[in-house]
Amino acid sequence: MNKPFLRHVAEDIKNRFGNDLPEIAIVFNNKRPITYLKKHLADVYGQAIWSPQFFTIQEFFSLSTSATEASSLSQFFYLYQLHNELLQHEGHELETLEEFYPIAEIILSDFSQLDYDLVNIDHIYMELYDTTKIDLEFQHFTVEQQHFIRQFWQSFSIAGHTGIQQRFLKLWKRLPILYKAFKEKLRHEKQSNYPTIYRDLAEGRAENQHVIQDFKQVLFVGFNALNNAEAFLFKQWQEEGKALFYFDADVYYLEDKQQEAGLFIRRNIYQTGLINALGESPNILGRRTADVHLYASTGKVSQTKLLHEILEQTESSDKTSAILLADESLLVPLLQSLPDATPNITTGYPLVQSPLFGILDLWMDVHQDISYLKKDKISFQAVETFINHPLTKVSKKEKLQLQQYIADKQLYEVGVDDLIIKSSVLPNFFKPIIKSDEVIPTLIDLVDRLLSSIAEQDRIRQIESNLLVETKKTLYQLKLGFDKIEPLSISFQIGLIKKAIAPVNSAIEGNPLKGLQIMGLLESRCLNFDNVYILGANEGILPKTSNSPTFLPNALRRAYGLPILENQDALSAYLFYRHFQYSDHIHVFYNSIVDENSTGEESRFIKQLEFESKFNFIKKTQQQSIFFPSPPTELLVEKRGKVWDKMYHTFIERGRRISATALTTYLQSPLQFFLKHVAEIKEPPSITQEFEMNKLGTVIHEVMEKIFLPFKGINEFTPTQRLKENLADVDALIVREIGNQYLSEFKNLDDLNSLQRIMHKIASEYVKMYLQHDMENYKAFRIIELENDEDYILDFPIHISGKTETVNLYGIIDRVDEVITHDNLIKTRIVDYKTGGDRIIFKEIDKVFAANTENKALVQTLFYSYVFEQVTGRRNLEPHLYVARKMREDGTLFSGKFGVMEGEYLIEQKKNFVDFLKATLEEIFNAEIPFRHNPDAHIYENDPYTLFYRNTPMQQTDENLL
């Protein structure tokens, strides 16, 4: 690396002042370079010395006053109070804080700029209606200045002014008075702000006007863009022989007037007349031929991932390194991507990117609803966010209980009264605020509780504590302001709190002289590093394409010499270019993806250097790697050791029952059978805003049971036309049963939410369709069995490892009845109700009695028939499936290519089913056959076990093998 700028400064100080340093003051724009200059001074002197005094420019100027600094929030409340006093004096209606807030920040920003640049307030805010008045009031302006102002105001002189323009003009006329009242208010409160300090010192009104006389010499190091107050004072102090200036510049952009990077230093030297204490600027940039590595990343955050790889290849402990964030929003992704390192971060860790803001923001959003809008319910997503946030520290037990409660009732909105979470450090998080003056005290209490729960055990915890302390200070400042004015709405207070705490950040400090340094470009002034990594070097970010909001239009700003967007471009160019003077290794990253937030182009500063300089730009485009991995490792569960012990103990020794559903689960996926019935991995409680077919099925089964239950035990046949009497009761029965499913008491349709009403409508149509089917197709019926889930258990012998063992089969019988057809035939039926996509049609019976069965409903119904016949001794049960979607067209009897499942064909297939059942159960308990997923099985999107199937290789078809 070429000799660093601050090394040059240190050597000049030694040559110029020797050991006479205690009465010397050294002033920088910011604090960071102070440590570096101290290090260079120690190296240059090589012995213990009395240190000079160090200041930032604001600290130095503040020596001219004893007034305390007014916080930004205090200034805002002063301005609001004074503005309303002026409105009252003018006879206008007073503005609320909500109305005034949007313009207050702009007014304060404009006041500050006008102070820094010593602009005459009365002149710039003068009421300007047309070109004639401009000529009269501003005859002292140059022709160019008059042209700029006339250009801006011509739109206000055509066909009169609109209401908005009139209001704007009145505000402009009022602002000089407001400005003077604001400055008087600060003086009365014995407070000040930096713009006032600057102006008072430049215009000779400062309390300690001769602040520079307190030092033998004052050295201003590394300054670039000076406001008019600084330029005036610096020139004056130089003429008095009290000030020296050290400018960090290069001939490459200083002497070439086309180079925007040298704009301000040219002004400082050639217009203001400030002398560079280092003499002639070096000519480094124009001669360097070093490599510059330019990386086009595939996305904004991808820059940080790419940087991680580069750092691992290039970093060494004997080199100084800095990551410069042209886009400071990349800080958090960067911290997450860094290799093992202890970074020193000047920019600070922002509250808005921390987990703390998540919980504070959630609190504010919740109370917009329950405290301002007076809602008595909040979304279940807000509850989920709260109980899963690590800082709320909700106990696992209470979290699961609440999740289960919400899932059982399927509460899309949860009642506020039900949300007292005792185990959390924030038990009253969901307690509504009654009075508007309780907003900030309640939020301060929340911050205090978070503070007390954070143990200061590591740096991250310390950062969180610092963020909370700074947030608390801001809240107290807001409270002081709110206490002095009329009560504000809860909504506006929350909006203002969000804006007020957004700038809060906490420094992450390491060793500023060693290791990896992270900072913004502005903070890198005066500093040089061996290795520099610049992130976010996109056009539109470097330089920025927008300025801060202002009431002073660009043409008017240009006329008065105020900063404009081009000035920001020049400063950005300088901050970027100066690193090319010194650093050995330069790596620049930009996002090459075009989207709504990115042009996909590198900064024009890069293109300029590439075209004009001798640097060797090595361009690299990040490519998404294409992996051709070996076949994935399939998840196989061998039936050995603990797995086999668990299976044998559970199903053979203890006799756990195997249901029809368990059987078809195995046919679909043996792996899922293991996860669900052997490992017993339960589905977590959840809530979905999608329609739940399983609950619909339960509602229909329960309602059908209640309709037919009065007929159970009657020996005589009942005419099916009697069911007409039940049709009128269907809707009420469904309402009550939906309530049972959601653990709530619903009395009528109005108690149901929107999705429950949809469920009610579908269930009603299905139940009525089932009843009408029976009335249309049969003369009479007699109920034999109904919704019996206790009595149908069957010992079933199978062979396991050469021994005969017994497993328990278990059938839930929805309905067994005898019916008289219109042909006066009596049939005994077993009926199963289905609400999903099941069907009675199948192609081939061999594909039914097989893995990944073609007709799961038929397998289950034959299972129920077999268990019922074996337990009761009844025979000749016909399996019927009531599929509401298709029963009008397809009927209820299963049918395939070789006939309908009745008569001799049914008898034959029942025998085949028993053989298939035995073979399947023996396969389940075959220790040589592992549990694995069937790759051909259909997987539903909401299948909770999807994660386990990901690596299942697809079976190759015959076509693939050709």
From TrEMBL:
Domain PD-(D/E)XK endonuclease-like: residue ranges: 657-935
TM region(s), chain numbering: none
InterPro entries membership: P-loop_NTPase, PDDEXK-like_dom_sf, PDDEXK_AddAB-type, Restrct_endonuc-II-like
Pfam families, sorted: PDDEXK_1
The name this protein goes by in its record: PD-(D/E)XK nuclease family protein
Organism from which the protein derives: Sphingobacterium olei
